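[09:14] KT: can someone run the structure on this one? pasting the chain below
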Amino acid sequence: MKMKQALRLQPNTESLGINRDRIVVGGLSQGGATSLYSLLTIPQKPVAGIIGLSTWLPLHKKFPKAAKANLETPIFLCHGDADGIVSLEFGQLTAEKLKAVNRHAEFNIYPGLPHWVNDKEMNDVSLFINKCLSR
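[09:31] RB: done, structure tokens below
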């Protein structure tokens, strides 16, 4: 499913009693890249939070101009310093670009973590989700 199609489904969540301020969207690697780019560039109602794990910002040179949505939405970025697939430098560049358009973007580095997740990162993700949903 294309991200634009998925975003069109979100208004249906409200008809089911799920408000957008109860939705946190994210992904790992390509899923995180798709989430970040789509949620920031396609005009829409904001979601509660955005998560990007071991990811990057596609078409980063278009930012900050391309940013049109979720500019006040908390963004949680995580990256391992041993990631051999998406380099830590891409994660850091993504964080810089996002912090330029969203004061709620945060970036966390996990020592020794390759292109995957670990218990510490998942605990931090859980805390972030709880924080987003308690606002």
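[09:33] KT: thanks! The radius of gyration is 14 Å.
[09:34] RB: yep, looked fine to me
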